[in-house]
Amino acid sequence: MTKFIDSIHAFECQIFRFINSHFEQKILNMYFRSVTHLGGATYTIMACLFFIVFMKDPFQLAGIASGIALLLSHIPVAIIKKFYPRKRPYLSISDVNIPKNPLQDYSFPSGHTTAIFSITIPFMVLFPYTILFLLPLAMSIGLSRVFLGLHYPSDVLAGCVLGTTVGLVSVRVIEGLI
C-alpha cells in the first residue's frame, strides 16, 4: 500500500513540477499572480456582500447561498488543515518557483480554491449561463495555486470538491426556504 501511495505522490509531484515550471513566463505569471487573489478572503467575502446588499432577487438569493457556502466551507478547511498538516510543496520539493513571501500555513486543502468554488457554484446552478465565465475563473484560481508553488494538485482538487459540495448544499437549503 505504501508503494502505491508513493507512486501517486510521485505522479502528483510530476504534474506539480510541469505546471510550476512555467513560472518564468511573464504573461502567465502576471495572470496567475493577479487571478489568485480573487479566491482570497477579501474578494470572496466582498463579492458575497455585494450581491446580498446591493442586488435584488434572484441575484440576492444567489449571494446569500454563496455567503452561506463560503462560511460553511471554511470550517472543514480549518479542521482538515489542523488534523492533516501537509507541508506546502515549496517546503517539500526542491527548486520550486514561488512568489516572494509565500504562505506559511498548511497546504491541504486549498482554501482559495474551496472559497471560489463555494461562492461560484450557487450562481452556476441558479444561472446556468454564468458557467461560461465562472467555471474558467474558478479553475484558473485553482490552477494558480499550483502554478505559484503553493499547493499540490490534490490540494486544489480537494478544495474544488469541497467548495462544489458546500455550494450545492447551500443552494438546496436556500431553495427549501423559498
TrEMBL record:
Q: Where in the cell is it found?
A: Cell membrane
Coiled coil ranges:
none
Pfam (any one): PAP2
Q: In its keyword annotation, does this UniProt entry include Membrane? A: yes
Q: Which organism is it from?
A: Bacillus carboniphilus
Residues forming the Phosphatidic acid phosphatase type 2/haloperoxidase domain are 61-171
Matches recorded under PANTHER family: DECAPRENYLPHOSPHORYL-5-PHOSPHORIBOSE PHOSPHATASE RV3807C-RELATED (PTHR14969:SF62), SPHINGOSINE-1-PHOSPHATE PHOSPHOHYDROLASE (PTHR14969)
Q: Kindly give the membrane topology term recorded for this protein.
A: Multi-pass membrane protein
Q: What is this protein called?
A: Phosphatase PAP2 family protein
Q: Which SMART domains match?
A: acidPPc (SM00014)
Q: Which InterPro entries match?
A: PAP2/HPO, PAP2/HPO_sf
Looking at the UniProt entry, the stretches that span the membrane are 35-55, 61-80, 115-136, 156-174
Keyword Lyase listed? no
Q: Which domain of life is it from?
A: Bacteria
Keywords noted in UniProt: Cell membrane, Hydrolase, Membrane, Transmembrane, Transmembrane helix
Lineage of the organism: Bacteria, Bacillati, Bacillota, Bacilli, Bacillales
